[in-house]
Automatic annotation (TrEMBL), chain A:
GO biological processes: endoplasmic reticulum to Golgi vesicle-mediated transport
PANTHER family for the chain: GOLGI MEMBRANE PROTEIN YIP1, PROTEIN YIPF6
One of the record's GO cellular component terms: Golgi membrane
Organism name: Vulpes vulpes (Red fox)
Yip1 domain mapped to chain residues: 76-229
Keyword field: Membrane, Transmembrane, Transmembrane helix
A Pfam family hit: Yip1
Location within or outside the cell: Golgi apparatus membrane; Membrane
UniProt protein name: Protein YIPF
Membrane topology label: Multi-pass membrane protein
UniProtKB/TrEMBL annotation, chain B:
Family to which the UniProt record says this protein belongs: Belongs to the YIP1 family.
Predominant location category: Golgi
Name by which UniProt lists this protein: Protein YIPF
One GO CC term on file: transport vesicle
Coiled-coil regions listed in the entry: none
Residue numbers spanned by region Disordered: 1-61
Transmembrane segments: 120-141, 161-185, 197-222, 228-250, 257-281
A GO BP annotation: vesicle-mediated transport
Cytoplasm in keyword set: no
Annotated Acidic residues bias: 49-59
UniProt-annotated location(s): Golgi apparatus membrane; Golgi apparatus, cis-Golgi network membrane
Yip1 domain span: 101-272
Membrane topology: Multi-pass membrane protein
Length: 236, 305
């Protein structure tokens, strides 16, 4: 390479040299190593990894899954266009959120004869069958997202509404009145908008471009119904 | 290397081969597809000839018949089969909704908007939205009506959602099934020009229910007169869409059966809207309403005397 550089170092030349012109002049000297060892450094580590997940303590296993769920919660709370929710999907988070929401929303068994709010099973069915229907709809429209990835995103984006439910329950401990209702309305509206923004950020890219609105509208309807159930919750 | 001249193409000018210059030569003249209606000999020319053309969409009914045979070729147990029912874009769904809101006399909804591409997206999600719209606004309207009463305790009435879902989905699927069966039966007796597939009928019914979504939201207003005016308007619009769609299909039949079919369609539609209004929305009673809170002392004092 030095020889080629010298030959083209003349400042006065204007003739362009063809590419790799000086390559034929190069000889491999002894101090450029072209031999060495080929080892796979990961092999021993993989064997250790396999046995370690089998022999690790239960606490380690649970903490690892909880950390993964917590990391995804953070992604939902601060939605950016990232692929984490889609790549490593899991259904633990949606299950935890759905069970929490359904437990908080169910009416007490005292007034089961009167036409009151939803039962635990009704909330559970609405959340899971709603998510399945939206996923089927998006796949039928031609979206290229897998079934469980979509369920994962829709389930995790219920997190803002679960937070709204907690806040509403706390607010309902105070005395009832129009101010009480206005505070709850405001909180539910804000969390509803947050859920929509979060799920759109994750799901919008997987839809065909001329059908985006068709795929997003059912998500809007789904979160609207859940928000309505949260807003109309009245304790006995 | 060949000479450059040998590679030149021979020019065939028009003058060399036109029939005038060369009367003995044979020429081939290819015509494009002709647009004149005389190419469709099977259609009768009645007194409403112009209407027929517009209602049947004669300008490309040939193409639609061809296209209809080429769709849905996958077997019904594959996912792709059901994907053909969702082969619509956003602007197409909006166009179909717009067509159901503005029925133009003489324009057939199916021929104009659906054109052998019936979709299940519209009927399914319009019905889902309607179910929740009716349940939620019924609940809201009852809350507003009974607001001042001391003995009223608000309940979310969640049971009514499942009842509304049963009613709306049964109407949107069973009535088209019955209508399709009836049209098939009449088709075997009387040669009809227009016959709709089951999915096209489901599509028309689904999109014609769209007008009830804003109607249900406006039914929150607790005035009887307002509610009945809304019922009339919604019934007029969606009823006319349905009547104009199915009139060409039964027109060739016995006059009385044709009229009876159209009347039954409109009657079932009326029954749905009036039934929903009566069941989900409590009657607004003026005694418990707003005047009780503002002018209450005078009126209750006068009434007590």
């Amino acid at each position: 390479m030095a020889k080629a550089a010298e030959s083209s170092g003349d400042p006065g030349t204007t003739i362009p040299r063809p590419l790799f012109a000086g390559l034929s002049d190069i000889s491999i000297s002894q101090d450029i190593p072209v031999e060495g060892e080929i080892t796979i450094p990961m092999r021993s580590q993989i064997r250790e990894f396999d046995s370690s997940t089998l022999n690790e303590s239960v606490q380690n296993t649970i903490m690892r899954d909880l950390k993964a769920v917590g990391k995804k919660f953070m992604h939902v709370l601060y939605p950016r266009k990232s692929n984490t929710l889609l790549r490593d999907w899991d259904l633990w988070g949606p299950l935890i959120l759905c069970v929490t929401l359904a437990l908080m929303l169910q009416r007490s068994s005292v007034d089961s004869e009167k036409d009151g709010g939803p039962q635990f099973a009704e909330v559970f069915v609405i959340v899971w069958f709603g998510a399945v229907t939206i996923t089927l709809n998006s796949k039928l429209l031609g979206g290229n997202i897998s079934f469980f990835q979509s369920l994962c995103v829709l389930g995790y984006c219920i997190l803002p509404l679960t937070v709204a439910m907690l806040v509403c329950r706390l607010v309902l401990l105070a005395e009832p009145g129009p101010v009480n209702f206005m505070v709850r309305l405001f909180v539910v509206i804000v969390m509803f908008a947050w859920s929509i923004v979060a799920s759109t950020a994750f799901l919008a890219d997987s839809q065909p471009p001329n059908r985006k609105a068709l795929a997003i509208y059912p998500v809007f309807l789904f979160y609207f119904v859940i928000s309505w159930m949260i807003l109309t919750f009245t304790p006995q | 290397m060949a000479a450059v001249d040998d590679l030149q193409f021979e020019e065939f000018g028009d003058a060399a081969t036109s029939p005038a210059a060369n009367p003995g030569a044979t020429t081939i003249h290819i015509e494009g597809p002709s647009e004149s209606p005389t190419h469709q000999p099977g259609l009768p020319r009645g007194s409403g000839g112009e209407e027929d053309d517009e209602l049947l969409g004669n300008d490309d009914s040939d193409k639609t018949e061809l296209l209809a045979g080429q769709k849905k070729s996958s077997p019904f147990w594959t996912f792709e089969y059901y994907q053909t029912f969702f082969d619509v874009d956003t602007y197409q769904v909006f166009d179909r909704i717009k067509g159901s809101l503005l029925p133009i006399p003489g324009k057939n909804f199916v021929r104009l908007y659906i054109r052998s591409n019936p979709d299940l997206y519209g009927p399914f999600w319009i019905c889902a939205t309607l179910v929740f719209a009716i349940a939620i606004s019924g609940n809201l309207s009852n809350f507003l009506i009974h607001l001042g009463e001391k003995t009223y305790h608000y309940v979310p009435e969640f049971r009514k959602v499942s009842i509304a879902a049963t009613i709306i989905y049964a109407y949107a699927w069973l009535v088209p099934l019955a209508l399709w069966g009836f049209l098939m039966w009449r088709n075997s007796k009387v040669m009809n020009i227009v016959s709709y597939s089951f999915l096209e009928i489901v599509c028309v019914y689904g999109y014609s229910l769209f007008i009830y979504i804003p109607t249900a939201v406006l039914w929150v207003i607790p005035q009887k007169a307002v509610r009945w005016i809304l019922v009339m308007i919604a019934l007029g619009i969606s009823g006319s869409v349905l009547a104009m769609t199915f009139w060409p299909a039964v027109r060739e039949d016995n006059r009385r059966i044709a009229l009876a079919t159209i009347v039954t369609i409109v009657l079932l539609h009326t029954l749905l809207s009036v039934g929903c209004l009566a069941y989900f929305f409590d009657a607004p009673e003026m005694d418990h309403h707003l005047p009780a809170t503002t002018a209450a002392p005078n009126q209750t004092a006068a009434a007590a005397k």
